[in-house]
Write the structure tokens for this entry.
Amino acid sequence: MGHLPSWLTSLSSNAVILASTGTVLIVLIGLLIFWRYRHILKHRPDSYFIRWLSKEQKSRLSQASVPFTTTAVEPGEEGVLLSCRNLKRALKVLKAQIVETFVLHDKQIHEIVLTVSLPKIPPLRQYTVTVKSELAGWYYRWYCGRKIARVVRDVLLPSIKTNIVVHLDPRSTCVPNIDENFHVLLYSSLKQDSSVHPPGKLFGVPVLFKSQAYLPSLQGIPIIDGATNFAVAELVDNCLYLHLDMLGDIANNSPQLGLLARVLERVDEELIADRVLADILKATNIQNNSVDTDKSHAVEVAGFSGRRETVIASLVRDILLPAVKSNIIVKNCQGHNETPVSDGAFRVFFFSSPIGSPYLETPESLWGHRLLKRGLAFVPSAMGLPIIDDAGFIVGELVDGNLYLHQEYIHCGSKAEAALLARLLVEVRHELSEAASATSESLTKLIANHFDNECLRQANACAAHPVSLSVPELTKQRISLRKLVKDTHLAELHLVRFQAAPQEELGREFDELLKLANVTDVKMTNDALVVSTRTLYCVHPKTKQKHEIGAFEIHIYMGRNAIKWFNKTRRVHGGRNNMNAPHVDENGNACFGNTKDLFPMLISRREFVSAVELAIAFIESVNLDDNWGKFLGHWPIAA
Amino acid sequence: MKSYIVCGLDNSDKGLLHNHGVVFYDWNTDIIIDQTQLEPTLSILNATATEAPTEYEDLYKLTLQFNAKAESTGDKNRVLDRAHAQSRASYIQACSYRLKGLENEAQAKVSDGRQKLVSAQESFVWLARQHHLSGTRVQEDKLRQTFAEQFQRLINVPKVRAIRVSNGSILVYTDMLYARNPGTGLLHELGQYLIVIRTDGSDDALRWFNRTRRIRTIQPGMNAPRVFADGTACVDEIKETLLELIAQFEFATVVELAIQFVETITNDELSKHIEKWPVIQEKTA
């Protein structure tokens, strides 16, 4: 047998090396995969929670036999729970992707934030989402900017239907750009002079970056997290200002895409006024079949513009017009009185009343709808029928063919405000319908029924929550109430007296000074209040003998919060020569002891009655252990 | 010529000025008058004013002090001599800066008291009603009969023009109400009222709203001598009685007392201002 050629030998040895290296690599990779798989298995949660899925989405999951459980992590925070095995299938059915995951209550349940992929419709695909930044590096713009753009595209583009520009730089241009694009400004506001600390959680997502958040400028529609009442963003014309820092330190952090997605979903709900109004009308169960027949009447709106005008005009047309059956004129009266008009048209006056002014504090919510702005509301004129919300607040008044709304109520035309107005108009419609169909007799009967029902409702409310109360306990409550009434009554009379003549209160103080025991006269000089006293005495604590100190002039210097005593009867040698009193030297200055700070405090607060009483008591007391006080015996004993 | 921004006027004041021929222009919620209108404005409003410059030339901001009275000498029984009177005036001047603090203190006490009173009232009505219903042990039919009788009594209360019921409130519209000043014997026309009774005693239980006129006395927009602009009344001992009656569904008696409350003039600081309501001849009442 001959030798193998060298090239074959070297080839075969290389192959062996390669094969062994390859085997080792495969084993290593296999171990890595195995380790990673174990890690995922170990840390994978049992379930995923997805909140705020629509009915349609839940229906699709059901139809695709994806099992889920409807649950709530907190009261009011409903969602669905999916097992981890079904997550992938669920995402496929929903055509969604996960933008953020975070641990919920324990490591067994994670919450995921989804966005639904943009539908593959050519009209939508023509629009672009561009990310702009001057501060971020190219990599960040490419990597994170893509993800941000995708979230914005998936959530907003179906509603916006225009190009969108996302500005990453914080505090970027504040002036809304009037162009065809829609602008999303991260970490910005039209009002940048004030900020607040954001809550720990918004829209169910933990807030990771704790930078201060901006406040809304109130020039647009605030996007508010219902749980915390925090304004996360503001929609002003074609600009969306996000008040929170969702990017953090660009060099070290990934953006909070989950929070961004949730905020944009809320924005989407506000964006299309028609859709908002349709939802609201549906929610109020308004029968629209009469609208078709009432094309002869119109709604005219004055004093409102933009979205507010759209919202008001639509709701008044759809809810009120069928009941009124005449033209409706809506006016923003801005707090001025308006006289009722009877010319056949129905009028709606926002923030007005026939007489009076706004004096009532508006509550936080009406019919369960939170008010964006509170402020003051008109008091009822008593000329018509009050429109009252469930909690008893008088929201407006129907005066013949005029509806007066006591506050503006619609400040930006948001969905919440539209819902409130719809509810209010439904109440007005109800009152109008009743009035229209009633004769005098039937009206009395109707009112009697209402009265009956109301009293019975109150009685049943008591019966539903019975409280056993003995007569003595009720008497105790009565006495407590009586005392509170009396105290408040006295406080009110005092305030009223004060408001009538405020300076009288000070004059009364002067009179009180004159009435003080041992005070004979009170004078004001240029810089001091001078109080003259009768003869003052001091009783020796040990001998109990009464020593006559003398009549005094007490000088209270307002400018320097100081006090001096001058004896008008005698000076006595004591701790020093010519002492004015046992603890007052020849110059009228006192050795204060523990009252050192008390006099200046009383004088600075102009509590002169207290200061004079204390000054007299100071003369009439002695500390025998003091270097001056021990000379009390030098003062003559009173006859 | 100077012009003035006059602040702190409500719609009644503006109406008064307008009716007396004062020319003014709206400036947000305030008004602007020129120098020629200043004296008539202060006279009509019975006020004095302090002016402060604004950023605009010849335009000044006026702050009004209403109910300007001559300084009384305090205790009626004490006649101060000239020196004392002078000292008293100097004292007031020296201490004037405390005025705001004193007013705020007084206001805070009242606000605190009223706030406690609102919840205490509602709680008391609830408990008293519980006691009343458990004591009577009536069936629903009997209750309905009682309520029907109560309603009949209610609509027959003198001076009640109309009744409505809405969302936890009974609304009572009255005829013209009058009040006689015990000091002068004159009869004053107060106005027609809407009295709102909360059936559960909440929200201060009772409010009065004058549909005829609102007058500035101690405060602007008073609905009656003892009823403030927001419709609440000066806290009075009658409160307890009213709450007790509401708890027992005795709304007819509540309305009678409510009317009587408005038409009664007592000796307190608020009632003194009845003179600001128009006097009428007896035969037209």
About this structure: Chain B has a mean pLDDT of 85. The longest helix of chain B spans residues 98-136. Chain B touches chain A through 100 residues (CB under 8 Å).
